[in-house]
Design goal:
2 copies of one chain form a homodimer. In chain A, 65% of the residues lie in helices and 1% in strands. The N and C termini of chain A lie far apart (47 Å). By secondary structure, chain A is an all-alpha fold. Chain A contains 16 helices and 2 strands. The first copy, chain A, is globular, with a radius of gyration of 22 Å. Chain A has one domain. The interface between A and B is large, with 87 and 87 residues. The structure holds potassium ion (2 copies). One potassium ion (K) binds next to loops of chain B. The site of one potassium ion (K) has 12 residues of chain A, from loops.
């Protein structure tokens, strides 16, 4: 009986995802704790924190990776980032297929029509496709960036820096070998545009990229792809203008830059919170409204089944569309001549609610465990949940409990509320309905 | 054509509500600006702020009402509170009926079955009932409190203080004639229990009170009443224990009190954020986790069609129930053997989304207009939106723009996201549906 239960649990796809990440984190912790991985000894908690941060492609770190890690340590980091990033893309797509199949029978909460591959064989094929896609994009980007950096660093360093930052960018990890992350490149549009293009593409999600490649015309794209493309462009432009205006006179960030540098740095600062996490400015010096806005962007995050986290752009958009539809007395929201099911709306509500609850509860716990002000703590939790990696500079001031708490948030943010909850809950077999009763809300 | 449009708009119930409040605020502003209303001259913006705060039964104030207002000024305040409070109860019920009728035809988003009165005559009858209910409860409470206070203040002062605080409590206004609000009564359980009972009853909502009186047995109560009673008791007990533990060792709040005073003060501090706003402790000295928790309570608020604001307890509970139902693969949430419609769930999502948007946008605006730290500003916005009136002590440090912004939030919080949006949007006549398309969220 017990044995049967255990076996049943072991094959559940959400548990496979969570388990794989946990194994990778454990392996990473041990590897980073090896004497020849770091130049100075690091604690187990610190090793766990950085391994979690790399595997969940967050980018928060309690030490400077460039100086504390040896070449071996850096390669471990890169390995964790790449596995974590590809793993998510693959797993996310795979679980969508598997869960979609399972749930689709009951109430079609999940998509399944969007994919053709639904067997294990299909998933293997899909993984191959994703791998080819990832390696192609990364190779092109590494070549370009190496060429750009040869004059400054010479071939071998230029190549190694390019390799590290391209992998880190494409997987939305945000780790950098430079002690000040990318703050030295505010006047270098090439680095800016190559890296931001990488993390934007990585953050769109494999499904979207495939859709764009297969169907050339906008009109034939799926609603999901249309929403992701329009939403990404719209939100990025809006965010860039907002941050440009808010920080224009802040001499500690972009205030003293030339107009062009201001524009490029604002653009980068607008796109990095969803959820790349590289930084070109010091977030400890940012204006309060900009920090608030950045937390909002970090919470939204990128695309589903991508290297980005957060509640996801589509979740946010569906919530907004449903709200507008409600106030226009429409039963279901619609966009581009397509209606969105009530089930998708309720799914978005569930995701948003669990995500807000996670952020709230862990911030609450951190205000008890840490002696730090509220603002940098909330910022850190939003950053960890969105696996962003931006910080107001308190990461290395966290207590051991604080490091463990943030590690848990990074892990939860990476696997997402859906996976988390499908591990914890068992579906009800019978879907009976009681008589309705009115509840007055609002 | 234009005239026709205008006439049509003028009779819309949401506009009547909003308009009535605006008229009352305008009248209050003028009355408080009269030379004999205040002991020292106050600015127009200050008068507007306090008039708005009283009409919306918030309780935030830029000056101390007890010393700044003359007897005339205090009576103006009391009049605004009583009209604002009863007005909301009446209007809220009336609009539920009217809107319920209108929308019910389309998609039954609104309740209508819960009430029998649906004509104008029915609303007049309802208003009478509400008035009788209000005056009965207030009379009993004033008598009790006067008796309790006679030994301290003598009859006439005891009566006047009782009148003012009972009206302020029952309407969830939170205004007090004492300069330190109720901080002087931490060792007086009688004052504590009378006033908290008043604002808890006022915050349950007329619908719930009627249901409890008409049907004696729990089992025959409507789902709405059951949720409100169980939810209120559950949340209050949970909040009291949480705040008791968090503040136990905080010498600036309850740390130095006797155990019984600690318990009673924790209880009061737990129930006042939803949305009475009286305070027995100094919120500027509270621990960060307690402040965070208090903001959460202020956002939830009280019952629908009551003197309380916030998103409302039922909205919060429906959102949670829907989230759990989703993760258990249930189509619709259920409780006490009753199912809740998808429409109610989506309505809750819409209310929560608009409410979060209001809090976020106005906090954002205040971080730009004010030179104050983020935490007290966010706290002030949550307090204003929930028409609570608790403050970390920055109300009188707000700039003129800040005062106007907070006034707008109090007004929006009082009329609620529903009324606001039904003023701004026009229902779509034809409710066609497009073909469905899948959107991946989360
Ligand atoms: K990241
Ligand atoms: K209040």
């Amino acid at each position: 009986m017990l044995k049967h239960k255990k076996r049943k649990l072991l094959v559940s796809p959400p548990l496979i995802i969570a388990g794989s990440f946990l194994c990778l984190i454990a392996l990473g912790t041990i590897l980073l704790k090896l004497p020849f991985a770091t130049t100075t000894s690091v604690s187990w908690v610190d090793a766990l924190f950085v391994a979690t941060s790399a595997t969940t492609v967050t980018g928060l770190s309690v030490f400077d990776p460039g100086t504390t890690l040896t070449l071996f340590g850096e390669l471990v980091l890169l390995f964790l980032i790449q596995c974590g990033g590809i793993g998510t893309m693959t797993f996310a797509v795979a679980i969508l297929l598997l869960l979609g199949k399972k749930v689709g029978l009951q109430n079609r909460i999940y998509l399944q029509e969007s994919f053709n591959q639904q067997s294990i064989g299909g998933i293997v094929k899909l993984t191959k496709l994703i791998l080819i896609f990832v390696l192609t994009v990364e190779s092109v980007a590494i070549s370009l960036l190496t060429l750009h950096w040869i004059p400054t660093y010479g071939f071998s360093d230029a190549f190694y820096y390019s390799l590290f930052h391209v992998v880190s960018a494409f997987n939305n990890a945000g780790f950098s070998l430079f002690a000040d992350n990318l703050m030295g490149f505010t006047s270098d549009p090439i680095v800016n545009l190559i890296l931001s293009s990488l993390f934007i593409i990585g953050g769109l999600g494999f499904v979207v990229v495939v859709d764009i490649f297969q169907k050339k015309s906008f009109r034939t794209w799926s609603l999901h792809t249309k929403m992701m493309v329009i939403g990404t462009i719209g939100l990025n432009v809006f965010a860039a203008i907002t941050l440009f205006l808010l920080e224009f006179n802040n001499d500690s960030t972009i205030g003293k830059m030339s107009l062009w540098d201001k524009i490029f740095t604002s653009y980068f600062t607008a796109v990095t919170p969803r959820t790349a996490g590289f930084n070109m400015i010091d977030y400890g010096q940012m204006e309060d409204p900009s920090l608030l806005f950045t937390m909002f962007l970090m919470f939204i995050g990128g695309g589903s089944a991508s290297t980005a986290s957060g509640i996801k752009l589509t979740t946010f958009m569906v919530t907004l569309l449903a709200t507008f539809a409600f106030f226009r007395f429409q039963e279901e929201p619609s966009l581009f001549g397509r209606s969105i099911r009530k089930e998708t709306v309720i799914r978005s509500l569930a995701i948003s609610t669990v995500s807000l609850a996670i952020v709230f509860l862990f911030t609450f716990a951190l205000t008890i465990s840490e002696k730090l002000p509220l603002l940098p703590l909330v910022f850190e939790v939003f950053s960890a949940f969105g696996t962003v990696g931006l910080t107001m500079g308190i990461t290395n001031q966290l207590s051991n409990i604080g490091e463990v708490l943030i590690s848990i948030v990074m892990f939860l943010g990476r696997i997402g509320p859906l996976t988390l909850f499908f591990i914890l809950t068992k579906p009800k077999k019978v879907n009976y309905r009681y008589p309705y009763d009115q509840v007055i809300t609002g």
